[in-house]
Amino acid sequence: MSVFEYLGVLISVVMGLGVTHVLIGISKTIHHRDTVRVYWVHLWWAVNVLFYVIAVWWGMFWWSTLGEWTFFQFLFVIAYAIILFLLASLLFPWDMDDDFDFERHFYDNRRWFFGILFLAWCIDIPETILKAEGGLRALPAAYTAWVTALLVLAAYAAWTDSKRYHSFYAVFWLVWVLGYLSLTTLNVIAV
Predict the structure, then answer these.
(1) pLDDT tens digits, residue range 167-190?
(2) The whole model's pTM is what?
(3) Half-sphere exposure of 26 (CA within 13 A, CB side)
(4) Total structural domains within the chain
(5) Could you tell me which residue, 186 or 27, shows the higher pLDDT?
(6) pLDDT at residue 191 is higher than 80
(7) What SS3 string covers the chain?
């Protein structure tokens, strides 16, 4: 068994728990649709996070070609998976009351949610650089501008409670990330 296969099991479990939490949250929302107050921005972020976790999970496959691993690399990749799980877990409460208000929940947790999103992008930077330095993936030319925009927008989202900004940012985030991924090497992983 290679190191990546061993690591891949743990990554899959942690990220799979994040995906599961979001999907269960969406399912509970559907089941309680007559009594909960749904907020479209919150649901849009559920889709964003679901996509983000799956995209990072896909991107982790580049690590499969690395022959020798350091403990730092091992911890770093696991930390990224853990941060993404935390991001997913903040979207939906573990227990949902019948009169749950998702708009209030979203704004009450926005500092934590967008702070962890900011942290995830901070971890993405060295993770992407380590892949490039290890010869696993070329560093896309647009990466610096792309990730800088994501960091600035996430920091502002943590700070502001502007509904107008959060409506814009939820949609912009998905368009920005999908656009970048479709224009870079992430759309194909060849090993």
Answers:
(1) 999 999 999 999 888 877 655 555
(2) 0.90
(3) 16
(4) 1
(5) 27
(6) no
(7) CCHHHHHHHHHHHHHHHHHHHHHHHHHHHHHCCCCCECCHHHHHHHHHHHHHHHHHHHHHHHHHHCCCCCHHHHHHHHHHHHHHHHHHHCCCCCCCCCCCEHHHHHHHCHHHHHHHHHHHHHHHHHHHHHHHHCCCCCCCCCHHHHHHHHHHHHHHHHHCCCHHHHHHHHHHHHHHHHHHHHHCHHHCCCC
- List CB contacts of 182: < 8 A, sequence separation 6 or more: none
CA of 150: how far to CAs of 37, 91, 125, 153, 172, in Å? 29, 19, 11, 5, 10
Segments forming the whole domain that contains residue 140: 3-187
Cβ-based neighbour number of residue 108 at 10 Å: 12
Residue 169 · residue 153 · CB < 8 Å: yes
The pLDDT value recorded for residue 188 is 59
How far from the centroid of its chain's Cα atoms is residue 125's Cα? Answer: 14
**Cα separation values, 47 from 28, 40, 68, 134, Å:** 15, 11, 35, 32
Q: Is the pLDDT of residue 4 over 80?
A: no
53-80 per-position pLDDT tens digit: 998 888 888 887 777 888 888 888 899 9
- Rounded to whole angstroms, how far apart are CA atoms 10 and 128? 20
